[in-house]
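Q: I have 213 residues here and want to know how they pack in 3D. Can you give me a structure?
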Amino acid sequence: MSIICQNIFFAYANRKPNSLIFEDFSFELSNNETKCLYGGTGSGKTTLFNLLFGELKTKKGKILIDKTPLRKEKTFCKKVAFLFQEPEKQFVFPSIQDEYKFLTLQKNDIAITQNIKELCDIFNVNVENYFKRDIYELSIGELRLLQIIFSFSADAEYLILDEPADHLENVHRLIFSDLIKSINNKGILILTKYPDLYETVADTSIPINAKYE
């Protein structure tokens, strides 16, 4: 089983007609591998993230999740967990306690609660210390750390991460890299500009734009 981008074309409507962000672009992510797509600013990483998230639509080509077209995949939200480049976009509620309750009062709440506890132990964080605060009171580094813990706790088959190492302290960045390496039962797609990710944690790394080869 896999996520497949098949011969996709995409350009923003407010730009020149011939300035395609993606032109006949393809890749495949299996459900037991870690893959990095890397490139500098403007190479299309966040655009690809938004295409996979469904916020943008391709001009041509297909995005398939386990052989089903993205927009017809009814269990999409259960199969794929996303980590946004801008941490504040991750949260449904401004209150950290409300966000925690929202995540842990779902159908598989016991598993998610346990996953959050284990991830907090890994990062040496007590999530309850944040319960009386909201996302606007946290530093961007704190927000990123909670964002990682909450998104990785999901019972999903795939993780799609847009610049996940941004804003992390060095110690947490190292822990994060080790965490990625330890996961072998999910498909993980990392969109990044950082060599310490695409050169060390991925099974496969490919440039997202030919000019960065």
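Q: Anything worth noting?
A: The mean pLDDT is 89. The chain has one domain: 37-58+77-212.
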